[in-house]
Every structure is written in C-alpha cells, then in structure tokens.
C-alpha cells in the first residue's frame, strides 16, 4: 500500500498512491477528481481528509521536525477516547500502513518501551489507560518525521513516488 502525503503535483486521478492524505481544505477538489474518474471510467482512489494539524504540505522546506513535534504536542488527544481522536487516526491510517508498527518509548515505571504491531493492540491499551496521551504524543511525531523525510526527499530532489515507495 502506498500513501501520498501531499498532492502538490499529483491528483487523485493520476496519482499512483492507494490513499491520498489531505487536509479538509482539499476535500472539494477530491470530490471533483472522483467525479472525473467516473467520467473517464477510471478506478476511484481513497482520500483521507483530516483536520490537518500537520499543515506542512504547503511548503515542504519549512516542515521541520520541531514544527511537527509542537503541532502534535498541541493536538487533541483525549485520554481513553478512541473515537474521533486525531492522533490515533494518524497512527491507524499513516504510521501502521507505512511502517507496520508503532513504538512508544517511556520510563520503566510507566510500563517501559512497547512496540505495537497492530492497531487493535494499541486501542486496547489506550482505552484501558495503559497507554496515556503523554506517552503516545511524543512517539507519534518521531514516526511521522521519518515518513515526512521521505516526502521531503521526493519534493527536494524531484523524485517520482514509485522510486521512493
């Protein structure tokens, strides 16, 4: 599975990615692209629209690790609540498909380092309180920064997605 993290040059109609990750501000454009796919008899692509607190797609050169860290730290992530939790949505739709795992490093007295291999396991710990937002939120930008670094390399070096994905 491949995911497009930004769509500056690529649209849903011509993108080779399976899922396009976009902000809510790009929803109308994707509705038009899906209608166009119907017109030209092309398979529709899935688009994930998030309330985007990772708004780095406008200028990838300004998307620094510290900026991602700050935005995730300020992001909405209520304890023990899975439904509508944007941090968990990023993990589910981006981190797990891209990396295949999600690692949380924490103090031994807080349960120690834990590696999650699937979303169900992570949700069980999160709902029970075994995984707290204070542990999850520092781990999320680390995973996202690895993924964004690939996107940044594509942008800066004008690489084709299929060469990177």
UniProtKB/TrEMBL annotation:
Gene Ontology biological process terms from the UniProt entry: tyrosyl-tRNA aminoacylation
Principal EC category: ligase
Catalytic activity entry: tRNA(Tyr) + L-tyrosine + ATP = L-tyrosyl-tRNA(Tyr) + AMP + diphosphate + H(+)
SUPFAM superfamilies to which the protein is assigned, alphabetical: Nucleotidylyl transferase
Any one cellular-component term (Gene Ontology): cytoplasm
Coiled coil residues, start to end: none
InterPro entries: Rossmann-like_a/b/a_fold (IPR014729), Tyr-tRNA_synthase (IPR050489)
Keyword annotations of the record: Aminoacyl-tRNA synthetase, Ligase
A single GO molecular function term of this UniProt record: tyrosine-tRNA ligase activity
Annotated EC: 6.1.1.1
Protein name (database record): tyrosine--tRNA ligase
Species, as recorded: Musa troglodytarum
